[in-house]
Amino acid sequence: MAAVELTSLRKSYGTTPVVKDLSLSIGSGEMVALLGPSGCGKTTTLRMIAGLEVPDAGKISIDGREVDAPGLHLPPEARRLGMVFQSYAVWPHRTVAENVEYPLRLKGLGRAEREAKVKQALGWVRLEALAGRRPDALSGGQLQRVALARALVGDPRVLLLDEPLSNLDVQLREELRAEIASLRSRLGTTMVYVTHDQAEALGLADRVAVMNKGVLEQVAAPQVLYGEPATAFVARFVGGANVLEGVSDGTSVRIGATVLTCEAPLTLPTGRGQLVVRPEDLSVTPGDGPLLTARLFLGGATEYHFNLGEHALKALAPASAELQMGSPARVTLRRARWFPL
Question: Which of 37, 44, 59, 203 is 20 to 30 A from 310 in CA distance terms?
């Protein structure tokens, strides 16, 4: 049975549609990331699952029980969900333990049971030693751990996470990302994770649902999403692929005045279309071709930028393959996808 079932969800604000006929099934124990740019509808979708927004149309079921349908809307507290917000939402006047305990008080649990559950939840996020501190004595990463423990302490059927790492610096994001992955592995909790960060989505989720302007563009495992994008938008948003309009003769693609050739055995459909190629799937050597306009050293590799008239092209090559600024290069395609126009 699916833990969360979304069927033909629609939501508009005024005359502006935000979510358009969205259907998605999330399995028990699965982690699905809703990924997309700002304004794509991912947070609105999460808030509808939580019961914080009412769909204009469609159905939502949690563990086989309808919580939203025509004429039906269960409030958030009746859905047995946990939620972690971007802004922590930690009460400043309560200690760490009191913040985590609060949902258990609302349930009417006895003191001994509350204390045992709080101790267990703080152990999950490695905050036992800070149980008596107040939020103003905690770092951003610790505050988000408090929010995570509070969301998990009540044994939710589904944990919802709304961009929980976006307020943290790079190092803390990496630490908390590993924390969430470890917790999920140990607890097996079903999770729906909203983010605009592709690294978070690809690194954490079993499947990634890419949204664009309220529509699901593709839902797939991270490896499939990266290697076999269904649309040019998915290819560009997930992994930063070059998306270039041109004309293919099967073994080469003309983009403006520049011709990119295919390395055997790669062949492409013929005609006009969109070439989708990731920077690491390009081969760059000195030769007769586009001029190098920028070069960025990335440690084990160098990122090269070329100007193809109306298009910019980005390639990733070993650091040893140095090209001089302003010099021409031969750029060939090792792997690519083609979307006919």
Answer: 37
